[in-house]
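User: Please predict the structure of the protein below. I'd like the answer in structure-token form so I can feed it into my own downstream comparison script.

Assistant: Understood. Taking the following sequence of 191 residues as input:
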Amino acid sequence: NVDAFQQGEVRRTNADATRADTLVTGLSNLSDAVDNSGVFDAITTFQSAITKLTSAPTDSSLRANMLEAARTMAQSFNVAHNSLASAMTGQQETAAAGVADMNTLAQNLAQLNLRIASDTEPLNNRATLLDQRDAILQQMSSFGDIATTFNANNTVDVKLGGSSGRDLVTFGTPHTVASTTATKMPGQRGR
């Protein structure tokens, strides 16, 4: 039998690994959005065109090259903007799906707690019910840092955000979580 401490450590490690994985995926998406836009090459080309133009400011072909480089750079920034917006939307959708999944798991665990507490045949059902409980806890830990309190009747209370976090499941009562999305990215103006 695995003790509660070891189970808690497995859940904590799972939460840490999932959080790191989500962060790496999000940052990779952002990096890809900028890299694939060609903005860095466009800036370099534009700077080169300006440098050439400063050596011969009256040369109309150098002016045309500089204007074309500026147009290409502006298009690259637009591509980067659209790609970043798409990556942000994808992250928001992933977060919303995770919140919905966590709420479903909380409901399932609350119902399971009620079944465990009212089990009239503990010798026949207890192992199955406890395995189901542990499986739900493992799934919950993939969405965030959870702290568990195992009660004398084998039910479990869960807090989201560690031991000082908010109640997620209290015996047979699930508490829903929600996510909010900023309407603007930090530092963004207008619109």
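That's the full token string. The two ends are 58 Å apart (CA to CA).
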